[in-house]
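Risk register update: the risk that structure generation would not scale has been downgraded. Supporting records follow, first protein first.
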Amino acid sequence: MTTTANVLTSPAPVTPIREAYLRLKDEISQVREADLITINVDVQGIITSMRGRMGQIMAFRDRLATDLPTIDPASFDKLEDYTLATAYTHGQYRATSMPSESFQAVLLEAIEYRGILLADASALHQRGIIDGSKLGDLKGANGYKSTAFDLLTLYTLLRESWDRITGRTALTLDELERAGIVADELMLAAGIRESGPQMMTTVILNRQRAFTLFAQSYDQVRRCIQFMRWNEGDADDIAPSLYAGRRRKSGSELNPEEPAPAEATPAPAVVPTAKVADKVENHVAPGLPGANPFGS
């Protein structure tokens, strides 16, 4: 029988999502249950949005040395990995609780994306814009494993070449990132379906721990950007709140007062028992006299 540990760490195609998870696996496992942040947002939507905004957000990393020299840049440096690791654990979560009809839906979506990405990659290769030598390794959409491997290969090829192909294809970055998520979900679903229901509790806690690291890092990054863009007033356009449009307490917004609508994926019956520690403090708004925008 496949064990929980084997499913979470067994060999699989190395994608940016999986690579980030493996780099952070030990750190994720060490997040205490008492520190976990409740997941009451659309994780998939946040991940897709974050990956599209990452370049713009990271442009502020180099300004820390001059604008905020006393701030530790770790939140910026690890934000992308936290985002990708959260995407990976969210895929595990969806795969674990995925009924047969949902699995079939993911497979059909993967087949559709495989066709789209293959057509674009082939055209770009023929025009000499990318090296399409890996296209010869594709196995064909004749099963869920072959489809997942092919989609992962196509995603990696196009994502690594994105700077060269942007504007030369009808494919959008959001579509490409979605294709990568679908490929990982299909691969994970295939493995987890073979391992049995004992995965449920481990996967739920794993996702919540990864999301906690991501949310804490992003909260600090937003504070920095709010400070640097205070006069321009466009910080929320660059790095929007995870809880945009909802009432929240002053200070850190990691624990909003109102619960979000339920996610598209039904919550499994087994849920973590840990409660989120409320660490919110009232403080002066960032940028105003007496403010300390980086305090917890």
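Supporting record for the second protein:
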Amino acid sequence: MNPITFLIEEDHYDGGYIAEAFITENEHIVTQGDNIEELKMMIKDALICHFENPLEIPSSVILKFVRQEVFAL
């Protein structure tokens, strides 16, 4: 299967990171971890849980880090 892309954002409220992948318009996977290594393990676990057929699990994961910044004018 093709790679899957997760958007990664820092969790400013609880700390750590949140990862989200959009599978279809109405289907997505969300998970979180305290650090990047834990987040990778959580993503792997989420993918195994999401795809019933092991052959559907993506062969690789792309982590795309998103950063938001707000400033006053």
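The first helix runs from residue 36 to 50. On this basis the risk owner (M.S.) recommends closing the item.
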